[in-house]
Amino acid sequence: MRFSRSSAWRLAFTLLLLFVVPVGVALSRHLSDDARPGDWRSARHDSSGQAPDPQQTPAAVIQVYAARAFGWRGVFGVHTWIATKNSDAERYTRLEVVGWGVQRGIDAVRIHHGEADGYWYGNAPTVIREVRGGAEVDALIDRLHSAARAYPYNHEYRLWPGPNSNTFIAYLGRAVPELHLDLPPTAIGKDYLPAGGLVASAPSGGGFQFSLVGLLGVMIAAEEGVEVNLLGLSLGIDLSPPALKLPGIGRLGMASNDQALAPATADNGRDPAAIEGRREEPPERP
Description:
By secondary structure, this protein is an alpha+beta fold. It contains five helices and twelve strands. It is globular, with a radius of gyration of 19 Å.
């Protein structure tokens, strides 16, 4: 069948709508959210009560979090980070990239102790991956820390199209493919490949990804499904489990499977009353 010019225009218009309409919906939600933080200086950073209490959890823990970015950036994307706790450790270490201060010579990569599940400038985080276990998870944590120290953009940060915080977490996912890390489509910057590369594995460590400096590309992998990237925005279909991936909105469909090397209990070991009390405290200042 001959592919006419009008068909090509209809296809292009349909694709444009699929990218533009979800972002419009996300913008509408953002503007109507009265609870969104207005001042970064008073936005909360305390625990959201999702991380296992390290004092009561002897197992090694890796958790990957995503939270909406602060301000207008949250319309389009999320900030991601990884929290780790070695076996019998008494506190968590966060691995993340932060852009503030990089132009003044401060490292972009921040490896520091802190709330594993803290609010990100007032926005509640979501656990997108969790692994618990023994020596095998301790070994993964060591590899994550080594990869974080080798990140090639420690002195460079660019909000769009990258390298940014999501570029860093995608880099760690490729370095430790045992995590099977499936970043949300709102993790803008995850498609920015290191060293100006055009082809790499997906952030989950498998499959195939082509990307032109994070602005145009396609990804096919077992964890991520099929994604198309246009100007940093991702549109795709996930088959396991079934879901649509929409720019600005994120994943619509069945929840992503959170496979762990060792079974995780539903109880995170924290006193619910203490958690609720902590949530009612005045927000911490950054």
